[in-house]
């Protein structure tokens, strides 16, 4: 691509949202760099190019695509920076590069016409929730790697920038819920114009111009009915700063900024009167915390606009209220906004919460929230704040290469964190920074360096997003050592300045080396060593520190042992290193003064001597004077005693307060300093193990004002349980001045101190806190601080009515309840007092007087209630456990009636059921039918995702029905977020099971641990590998169906890229696929399954857990399989034995390796071939390869009980439905029918069914000698074309080979089908000249389809596929010009062979199941197997795979997607013709005719006597006139416009019949007839345009200009015949009209169409010409009105309805 450069690109997209089609034209202005330029290569992944030209000369072009699986994966991840593109355009010989008068060569114009059919990557079509037509389309821009090439031919490279001219043609309006909503397109750039399409008034064209040079990967747009919109400006700045008094803002976002740190540092020693220095950590606060955003900075941005779907105006304004401050802050602190305006659109269907484009943010509609929801404000502000920062670093400033990608990501995260510090406060920023550092240390194991020169996608990208901002923060702390103004914020501003000035080049690309050099110049600090360790190195340091006080030297000796998180790493790139640099240790000495000491870290083990600064003395914490000083310090700090519970002896006893020194002998020892803090300014991302006495941690918690220090103290006290530690944590929770996140952590830590060894003191403190703070006063208790502790612990209390006006109290209350549920007694459940409080909070929740929603609060209560009893050893018998689960179910049912925000209560209830079902597998609380209903496509997205997760976690992927659903969900193109979530769930499920088998329970991959558990990450890799070995050996690798699913979905073009990457990783890991270009070898089954089935229904034995009173049955019972085979817990053994109550019902699985036959499964329904550019033969996937003819099954057996001996794999034996037909094994359970009302009753017992052997492959019948030559060459070529089209059809794979009764699970197939046929046999006959005529070929194809319809009932997947193949065959057969001899009807038809009895069709019942939207769901469709097996999936309660839209039905039939001309011709032929409102059109035609002078003779019925034509009715037998036609039109007597036209034609024919040519009436009729034809032709060809809000505004504007014109005075008011002296006016004018009447109709919105408004203006003009003669003043005014109206209506093409 170095041979040319693109300076400008024009893009025009014509979007047909209803059919998901895009016609596009793009024109690139390229500047050659060499005279020898003969071809160019562009990125063009999904678009199909129709034509290409350069300077008007046609060009040859071709597509270059991958040929192996590995190349497909490389293409997905964009692993090569030198990607040359997929589209090659070769210039013709006539083209030559011309030199320009200036330096260089002349520009060339390359024009490309292309189209997109159902684009799945990059361009997403979304449907509205209520199941109406598709209404929105948006791009999913991704800069690394870019996906713009998937919807636009372009130079898709980050370093190639150009200006853009973007045209979007969309429908003017869309129908949604019976309403017509105007379409809006929001795109990058500035809106230049909005006009009606010149040839189609039902469509409009948006034009956006991007004048700032921008790469293609930052393009994006969204089109939809965005009727909710708002403009944001600087007026919101004051409201944002004083939001604490604004009810529209959630309280957390305001209180955090105003919260005061806890404690006071004014404490003095008895012999030292020196005041304390500044508070710990406060000196590190940067100056940006006090920045005030100037309104002028916000006003300098061209405009800030927000859009969303209709009905979300309040949520939109609330969510986006902070955006002006965010944009102003970044502009003021780092650099001016790089674009002219900022736009944000909230759309459905985004895979990620925010998609960042140049000057545009596409945000998920899930981020919208009302002011009453507290929790959602945090996530929305975090996600949108990061998107705002990426406008500067990410879209405007780009990375120089893969190795520099971390820098752009880090700068965006660093500046976003600066805004968090500005808007949410210093405490929130410090707490989040500490949390991110802890996460980084746990995650940086076996990770690559930040500067890795390769693609970073998925989890790697998430790791970069975590580490890069932390590393830049540490760099900032190193730089500010020389001064606060020399930090990284100054360097970020210099980066933006360099981009503006051009120092970063035309690509605005910043590199790591350039950035580090700039940091050194700005701060004067050499950062080379820092970069080598943290940017180019891997891992994080782990410090083990110990101290000792040397009294002789008056020094503190600190010993530091250093190791790396990669100490036991297995990756070759993750080598451990020794970190070097200054580490700060802050010692708070005896006089209360903190002294900082710098430790020069550079060796693995080193001892430091820190000099003591004050006179040595001991601090006695057990003395009375010491406690008095603490009380005085607390009183001086403000209201709310820091030493809560020590006010009196009674309060101390009630709260069980234990001071340091009363119960712990160690605390009685003297100490020379208060405490030591390591790295107080958070300059290192490290793990510090520092052991100091618990009383020092307690002092640090109480007196250090830094939230990071308080959080460290809480974690340490949790690891050092004691009664005094519990008291310190209790006081932190009760102190309202403590930062709320620290209070939450302290409350959760109290649960760890609620143990029997400590006499349940943690439980006592938690219960007392909850009663004192959040419960109504009990009987006999006071209102003081001890009111919650002056009564027995188990005394009942009612909760206070909800009041969430204080954010700190709200989150603390939730934390206290969660901590109560985490306490465990000997029975594994929460103690009785905790459970009583949780149940009381659930039952008596009162939110009537609360201004905020309690959805998340109730969701937390539901999770806490289930958590309290989940691990109980008496779960099945304890009444308390049943009460808790009943309350959870009550909340779920209540959420159906009064839905919570995003149905969070329902999600929490489902998660609680899943957790209890996994912990208590014998209780059978999991309801498969409920989760299947919640997983329906009509359910709300969060509910559906939770239900899908529950189904996967409960049943696992080894169960065939769940495995099929997992594949369908992972390829669900309608819900991409669900697809990615399902793939991630599958990976996590395998990881969790592997960890269980590997005995790894504290993996840091899935949970954040503190304390001793944090060290477990070192052993995680080894245990995880061992667990995977055990998991694979346990049978996962023996699942052919799961293997087929992973092999196909990982390379399926319809699967979202992230989902494909995850599934490919699982496939490669589990099945150890080495060569990705070759399919995995076929499996060799090692199991023999002997099954004896009884025709009668199988009943569970007495005492079995499968009794009817259980809420749900195991999957094995629902399938007729033993419970031992149900995949609940992985079992190491491979032999299973079940003893049934009757000898005739047995199931034995044994090892038998003799006579093994390779097992290959048929293709999975719903999978599609890979991308168009990848040949199927090259991929060589087992799903797409032809299936060999299987060996016939055993001969039929007679007389029940049926005994089948089939060779199956171990996993296949757990799902008998796929291989064995048993009418009673699935439908006999009454409980299954009770769970699923759609389950049909069991069929009657069969009489000695037989399973015949499958016939051999159909042989080619012998042909006569004269026919041996076969069909003619031309006909054979056409037949090969038809066969090739059918074979490539996505739904043709069930017909590619003969039916195998064993592998296809249909043993009765050849009992019904006596003449089988398939496409493979047809191909073999065609190649061997087996057809003498085309009719024989057609007969075989129709025989195959007839067999499909005869065996598969209507509505089953294979039947639907047959219908699709039939449509393709009919289309191709007609296209080839071959005559059709027979007709195959859709539905069961008779085959060419002997007639078979009709197959009964299962009628699906409608089951009403509540899912939050109270929709009606149909029971899953039947399986493609015979009727006895087809209902097997229904008993599982899972939805049918075919109901999940993996490929939307576009009605394309068998159209070849690689034939551009065929596609364009099809699109042109099938394009929806503009519809006309014919009654309105007929009314307008009649009004115009009645206003013509030539119509006077035809206005009323003919009167033979009055008009002197006595013979009229003798000649005219069907008289008609205009008034009669008007009456019929008003009475709606016409069924169509044709009937109306017939009456008018009758009127004209009657006139011509009775009146001779040349007469007056005949002449008038000819004139009127010509006017009618012209009017009819014009109105019928001009489609109607709906009158939307914009059209009404335009109409009012036109009418106002007409009324203000001086020549329009005669038409302002209705004509008064008396006042004006025209008594005959209404005798002549039958339809009067004036300007005031039009104005009233506009005010009432009486116009449905624009043409109706124009027709009224036309009626005024026609009435004027009818009544007023030429050359009269009023007639001249009419002409002036006509001219002016035509001029005003011309701009919008409305003058097409105005006649001259």
Automatic annotation (TrEMBL):
The subcellular localization recorded is: Nucleus
InterPro entries for this protein: Aminopeptidase_N-like_N_sf, Bromodomain, Bromodomain-like_sf, Bromodomain_CS, Ig-like_TAF2, Peptidase_M4/M1_CTD_sf, TAF2, TPR_TAF2_C
Top-rank taxon of the source lineage equals Eukaryota
**The Bromo domain, residue ranges:** 1287-1359, 1490-1562, 1603-1675
- Ranges annotated as biased composition (Basic and acidic residues): 254-266
Question: What ranges does the record list as Acidic residues composition bias?
Answer: 267-281, 1147-1157
Which GO CC annotations does the UniProt entry carry?
A: transcription factor TFIID complex
**GO molecular function per UniProt:** chromatin binding; RNA polymerase II general transcription initiation factor activity; transcription cis-regulatory region binding
Biological process GO terms, please? Answer: chromatin organization; transcription initiation at RNA polymerase II promoter
Q: Would the keyword Chaperone be found if you checked this record's keyword annotation?
A: no
One Pfam family here? TAF2_3rd
Please note every region of biased composition (Basic residues).
1131-1141
Record keywords, A-Z = Bromodomain, Nucleus, Transcription, Transcription regulation
Locations of Pro residues compositional bias? Answer: 1238-1249
**Bias-annotated ranges (Low complexity):** 1221-1232, 1250-1267
User: Which family is this protein grouped under?
Assistant: Belongs to the TAF2 family.
> What is this protein identified as?
Transcription initiation factor TFIID subunit 2
Its lineage reads: Eukaryota, Fungi, Fungi incertae sedis, Zoopagomycota, Kickxellomycotina
């Amino acid at each position: 691509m170095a041979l040319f450069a693109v300076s400008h690109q024009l893009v025009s997209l014509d979007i047909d949202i209803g059919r998901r089609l895009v016609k596009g034209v793009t024109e690139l202005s390229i500047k050659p760099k060499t005279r020898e330029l003969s071809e160019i290569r562009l990125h063009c992944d999904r678009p199909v190019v129709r034509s290409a030209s350069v300077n008007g000369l046609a060009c040859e072009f071709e597509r270059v695509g991958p040929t192996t699986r590995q190349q497909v994966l490389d293409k997905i991840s964009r692993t090569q920076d030198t990607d040359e593109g997929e589209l090659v355009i070769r210039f013709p010989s006539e083209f030559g590069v011309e030199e320009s008068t200036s330096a260089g060569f002349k520009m060339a114009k390359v024009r490309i016409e292309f189209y997109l059919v159902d684009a799945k990557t990059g361009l997403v079509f979304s449907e509205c929730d209520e199941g109406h037509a598709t209404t929105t389309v948006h791009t999913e821009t991704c800069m690394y790697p870019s996906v713009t090439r998937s919807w636009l031919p372009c130079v898709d490279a980050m370093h190639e920038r150009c200006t853009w001219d973007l045209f979007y043609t969309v429908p003017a309006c869309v129908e949604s819920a019976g309403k017509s909503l105007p379409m809006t397109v929001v795109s990058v750039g500035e809106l230049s114009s909005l006009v009606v399409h010149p040839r189609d008034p039902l469509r409009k064209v948006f034009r956006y111009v991007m004048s700032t040079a921008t790469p293609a990967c930052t393009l994006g747009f969204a089109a939809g009915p965005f009727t909710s919109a708002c403009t944001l400006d600087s007026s919101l700045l004051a409201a944002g700063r004083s939001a604490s008094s604004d009810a529209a803002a959630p309280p957390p976002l305001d209180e955090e900024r105003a919260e005061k740190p806890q404690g006071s540092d004014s404490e003095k020693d008895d012999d030292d009167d020196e005041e304390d220095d500044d508070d710990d950590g406060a000196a590190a606060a940067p100056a940006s915390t006090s920045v005030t955003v100037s309104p002028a900075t916000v006003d300098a941005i061209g405009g800030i606009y927000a859009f969303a779907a209709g009905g979300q105006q309040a949520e939109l304004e609330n969510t986006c209220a902070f955006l002006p401050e965010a944009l102003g802050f970044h502009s003021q602190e780092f650099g001016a906004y790089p674009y002219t305006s900022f736009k944000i659109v909230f759309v459905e269907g985004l895979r990620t919460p925010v998609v960042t484009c140049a000057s545009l943010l596409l945000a998920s509609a899930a981020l919208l929230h009302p002011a009453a929801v507290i929790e959602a404000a945090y996530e929305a502000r975090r996600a949108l704040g990061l998107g705002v920062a990426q406008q500067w670093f990410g879209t405007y400033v780009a990375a120089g290469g893969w190795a520099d990608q971390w820098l752009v990501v880090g700068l965006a995260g660093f500046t976003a964190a600066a805004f968090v510090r500005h808007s949410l406060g210093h405490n929130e920023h410090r707490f989040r920074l500490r949390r991110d550092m802890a996460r980084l240390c746990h995650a940086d194991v076996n990770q690559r360096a930040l500067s890795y020169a390769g693609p970073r996608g998925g989890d790697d990208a998430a790791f970069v997003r975590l580490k890069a901002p932390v590393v830049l923060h540490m760099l900032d702390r190193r730089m500010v050592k020389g001064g606060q103004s020399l930090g990284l914020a100054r360097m970020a501003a210099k980066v933006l300045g360099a981009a503006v000035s051009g120092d970063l080049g035309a690509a605005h690309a910043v590199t790591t080396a350039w950035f580090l050099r700039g940091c050194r110049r700005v701060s004067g600090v050499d950062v080379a060593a820092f970069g080598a360790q943290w940017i180019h190195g891997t891992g994080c340091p782990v410090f083990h520190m110990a101290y000792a006080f040397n009294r002789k030297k008056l020094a503190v000796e600190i010993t530091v042992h250093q190791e790396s998180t990669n100490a036991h790493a297995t990756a070759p790139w993750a080598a451990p290193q020794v970190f070097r640099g200054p580490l700060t240790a802050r010692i708070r000495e005896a006089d209360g003064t903190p002294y900082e000491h710098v430790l020069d870290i550079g060796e693995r083990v080193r001892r430091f001597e820190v000099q003591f600064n004050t006179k040595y003395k001991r601090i006695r914490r057990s003395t009375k004077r010491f406690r008095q000083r603490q009380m005085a310090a607390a009183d001086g700090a403000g209201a709310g005693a820091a030493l809560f519970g020590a006010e009196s002896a009674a309060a101390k006893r009630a709260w069980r307060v234990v001071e340091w020194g009363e119960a712990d002998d160690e605390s009685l020892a003297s100490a020379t300093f208060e405490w030591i803090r390591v790295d107080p300014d958070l300059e290192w991302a490290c793990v510090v193990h520092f052991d100091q006495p618990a009383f020092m941690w307690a002092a640090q918690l109480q007196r250090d004002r830094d939230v990071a220090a308080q959080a460290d103290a809480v974690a340490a006290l949790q690891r050092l349980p004691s009664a005094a530690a519990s008291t310190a944590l209790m006081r932190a929770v009760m102190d309202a001045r403590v930062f709320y996140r620290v209070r939450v952590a302290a409350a959760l830590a109290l649960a760890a101190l609620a143990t029997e060894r400590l006499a349940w003191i943690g439980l006592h403190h938690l219960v007392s806190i909850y009663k004192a703070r959040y419960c109504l006063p009990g009987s006999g208790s006071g209102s003081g601080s001890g009111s919650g502790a002056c009564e027995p612990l188990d005394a009942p209390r009612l909760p206070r009515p909800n009041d969430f006006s204080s954010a700190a109290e709200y989150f603390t209350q939730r934390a206290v309840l969660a901590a109560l549920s985490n306490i465990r007694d000997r029975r594994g459940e929460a103690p009785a007092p905790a459970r009583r409080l949780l149940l009381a909070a659930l039952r008596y929740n009162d939110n009537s007087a609360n201004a905020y929603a309690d959805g998340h609060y109730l969701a937390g209560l539901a999770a806490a209630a289930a958590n309290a009893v989940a691990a109980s050893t008496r779960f099945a018998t304890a009444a308390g456990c049943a009460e808790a689960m009943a309350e959870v179910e009550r909340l779920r049912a209540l959420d159906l009636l009064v839905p919570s925000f995003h149905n969070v209560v329902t999600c929490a209830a489902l998660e609680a059921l899943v957790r209890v079902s996994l912990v208590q597998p014998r209780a059978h609380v999991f309801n498969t039918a409920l989760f299947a209903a919640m997983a329906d496509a009509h359910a709300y997205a969060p509910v559906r995702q939770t239900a899908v997760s529950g189904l996967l976690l409960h049943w696992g992927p080894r169960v065939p029905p769940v495995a099929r659903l997992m594949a369908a969900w992972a390829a669900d193109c309608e819900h991409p977020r669900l697809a990615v979530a399902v793939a991630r769930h599958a990976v996590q499920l395998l990881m969790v099971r592997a960890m269980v088998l590997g005995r790894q329970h504290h993996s840091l991959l899935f949970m954040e641990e503190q304390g001793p558990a944090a060290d477990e990450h070192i052993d995680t890799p080894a245990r995880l590998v061992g667990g995977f070995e055990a998991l694979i050996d346990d049978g996962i690798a023996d699942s052919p169906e799961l293997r087929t699913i992973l092999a196909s979905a990982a390379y399926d073009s319809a699967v979202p890229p992230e989902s494909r990457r995850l599934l490919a990783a699982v496939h490669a890991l589990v099945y150890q696929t080495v060569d990705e270009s070759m399919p995995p070898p076929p499996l060799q089954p090692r199991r023999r399954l002997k099954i004896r089935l009884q025709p009668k229904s199988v009943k569970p034995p007495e005492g079995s857990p499968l009794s009817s009173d259980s809420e749900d049955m195991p999957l094995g019972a629902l399938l007729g399989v033993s419970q031992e085979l149900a995949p609940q817990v992985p079992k190491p053994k491979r032999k299973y034995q079940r003893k049934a109550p009757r000898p005739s019902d047995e199931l034995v699985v044994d090892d038998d390796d003799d006579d093994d036959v390779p097992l290959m499964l048929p293709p999975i329904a719903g999978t599609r071939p890979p991308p168009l550019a990848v040949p199927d033969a090259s991929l060589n996937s087992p799903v797409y390869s032809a299936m060999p003819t299987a060996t016939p099954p055993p001969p039929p057996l007679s007389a029940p009980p049926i005994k089948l001996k089939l060779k199956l794999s171990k996993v296949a034996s757990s799902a008998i439905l796929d291989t064995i037909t048993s009418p009673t094994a699935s439908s006999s359970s009454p409980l299954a029918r009770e769970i699923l009302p759609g389950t049909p009753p069991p069929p009657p017992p069969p009489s000695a069914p037989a399973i015949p052997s499958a016939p051999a492959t159909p042989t080619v019948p012998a042909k006569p000698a004269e026919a041996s030559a076969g069909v003619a060459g031309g006909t054979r070529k056409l037949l090969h074309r038809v066969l090739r089209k059918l074979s490539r059809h996505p739904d043709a794979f069930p017909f590619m080979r003969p039916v195998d009764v064993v592998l296809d699970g249909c043993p009765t197939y050849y009992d019904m089908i006596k003449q089988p046929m398939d496409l493979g046999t047809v191909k073999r006959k065609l190649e061997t000249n087996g057809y003498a005529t085309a009719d024989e070929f057609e007969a075989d194809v129709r025989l195959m389809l007839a067999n499909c319809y005869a065996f598969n009932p209507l509505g089953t997947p294979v039947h639907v596929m047959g219908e699709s193949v039939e449509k393709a065959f009919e289309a191709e057969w007609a296209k080839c010009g071959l005559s059709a001899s027979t007709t195959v009807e859709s539905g069961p038809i008779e085959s060419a062979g002997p007639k078979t009895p009709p197959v009964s069709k299962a009628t699906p019942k409608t089951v009403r199941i509540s899912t939050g939207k109270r929709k009606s769901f149909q029971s899953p469709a039947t399986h493609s197997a015979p009727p006895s097996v087809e209902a097997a999936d229904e008993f599982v309660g899972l939805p049918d795979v075919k109901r999940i839209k993996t490929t939307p039905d576009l009605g394309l039939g068998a159209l070849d997607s690689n034939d551009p001309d065929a596609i364009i011709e099809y699109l042109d032929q099938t394009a929806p013709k503009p519809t006309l409102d014919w009654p309105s059109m007929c009314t307008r035609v009649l009004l115009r005719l009645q206003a013509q002078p030539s119509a006077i003779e035809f206005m009323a019925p003919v009167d033979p006597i009055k008009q002197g034509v006595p013979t009229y009715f003798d000649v005219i037998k069907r008289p008609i006139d205009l008034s009669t036609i008007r009456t019929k039109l008003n009475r709606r007597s016409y069924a169509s416009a044709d009937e109306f036209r017939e009456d008018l034609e009758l009127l004209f024919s009657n006139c011509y019949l009775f009146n001779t040519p040349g007469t007056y009436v005949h002449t008038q009729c000819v004139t009127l007839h010509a006017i009618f034809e012209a009017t009819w032709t014009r109105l019928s060809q001009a489609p109607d345009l709906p009158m939307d809000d914009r059209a009404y505004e335009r109409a009012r504007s036109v009418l106002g200009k007409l009324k203000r014109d001086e020549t329009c005075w005669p038409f302002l008011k209705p004509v008064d015949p008396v006042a004006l002296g025209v008594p005959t006016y209404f005798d002549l004018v039958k339809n009067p009209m004036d300007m005031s009447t039009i104005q009233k109709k506009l005010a009432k919105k009486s116009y449905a169409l624009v043409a109706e408004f124009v027709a009224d203006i036309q009626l005024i003009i026609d009435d004027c010409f009818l009544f007023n003669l030429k050359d009269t003043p009023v007639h001249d005014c009419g002409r002036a009105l006509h001219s002016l109206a035509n001029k005003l209506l011309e701009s919008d093409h409305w003058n097409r309805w105005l006649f001259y």
